[in-house]
Amino acid sequence: MSIRITTDSTCDLGELIAKHNIGVMPLSVILGGEAFRDGVNITPQNIFDYVDKTGNLPKTAAPSISDYEEFFAKYVDEGDTVVHYNISVKSSSSYNYAVEAAKRFGRKVFVVDSKALSSGQGLMVMKAIDFLAQGMSAKEIAEKTAALAPKINTSFVPDRLDYLYKGGRCSRMAMYGANLLKIHPLIEMQDGQLYAGKKYRGPMEKCIANYIADLKVQYPSYDRTRAFITHSTAEESIVEVARQKVKELFDFEEVIETVAGSVITGHCGKNTLGVLFIAE
Predict the structure, then answer these.
(1) What pLDDT score does 268 carry?
(2) How far apart, in Å, are the Cα atoms of 90 and each of 26, 114, 115, 137?
(3) In this structure, CATH architecture of domain 154-278
(4) Mind listing the pLDDT tens digit for each residue in 19-47?
(5) Which neighbouring-strand residues pair with 112?
(6) Domain spanning 2-27+62-148 has what CATH number?
(7) pLDDT per residue over 165-203, tens digit each?
(8) Half-sphere exposure of 26 (CA within 13 A, CB side)
(9) Where are any strands of DSSP class E within the chain?
């Protein structure tokens, strides 16, 4: 019996998906009534072009129960036991639909709410890959990774609040004030829900450096296995500041850079950047 690790497309794992043979269930991105599959036939640039042209944000949609049943079936029929990781249930109905679909397969499919998104979700998936290499059972992998959810730092700093405003996540006044005064709020996930935290002021490069310095103070002990620098097609100068600051302040065995997919980009906009890792 083999074990297959699978996840929603919102994990933002980039090339690691193919490297570790991770199965991916795409969420849908809807532009003007036309549905596209995240990571399959739409790119973040399509999102930017659509918003610039229409002034509207794309809509997103979870896979249906039948979509998940079909997705799980192809692995179970090959003799695999599946451990699947969803975007936070507080961000999407994907988890509930996947749980319902899994009932058809009994103990052949385990579904885990990552209580995260983007590479915060990806961190849990990669821990599953680590545990699989250690010879753990599917049940053990599901239980041990689920227990890590409260320790995963899922946070990011957006460049502008236009996308968050269009998505109903901040007021028009907050958006205009932030953009005018170059205020960049910390957005962080707590128990699967996104909240606005500390406000940084100034150019994005300065804000990202201060944000990473704050992470070091907030998380003096952390899992050194890996960290992600994940961004929504950010300018190179912003990403380089993140690289250097993480190298200066942290001691990770590997730091992986990934670009956010279309679902995540559609909610945060261009130049958003986060450093994500597991605390101890």
Answers:
(1) 79
(2) 18, 10, 8, 28
(3) 2-Layer Sandwich (3.30)
(4) 999 999 999 999 988 999 998 999 999 98
(5) 85
(6) 3.40.50.10440
(7) 444 444 444 544 556 557 788 889 888 887 878 889 899
(8) 14
(9) 2-8, 23-25, 28-31, 34-37, 59-61, 80-86, 109-113, 152-153, 155-156, 183-190, 193-201, 227-231, 255-259, 273-278
CA distance 136 to 120: 22
The whole-number pLDDT of residue 176 equals 42
- How many whole angstroms separate alpha carbon 155 and alpha carbon 157? 7
Q: What's the pLDDT score for residue 101? A: 98
pTM of the model: 0.92
Mean pLDDT split into 10-residue runs, the chain, 280 residues: 94 96 96 91 91 85 97 97 96 96 97 97 98 97 98 91 53 49 81 84 94 97 98 95 98 97 85 96
Amino acid letter at 4? R
- The encoded tokens of residue 231 equal 């961004």
Please list, residue by residue across 50-82, b when 16 or more beta carbons sit within 10 angstroms of its beta carbon and e when fewer do.
bbeeeeebbebebbebebbbebbbebbeeebbb
The ranges assigned to domains in the chain are: 2-27+62-148, 154-278
Q: What dihedral do alpha carbons 276, 238, 36, 11 form, nearest 10°?
A: -10
**In which element (H, E) is residue 21 found?**
none
Tokens of 224: 């050194």
Domains 2-27+62-148 and 154-278 share a fold: no
Contact 232, 271 (CB under 8 A): yes
Looking at residue 168, what DSSP letter applies? T
Alpha carbons 85 and 146: distance in angstroms, whole number: 9
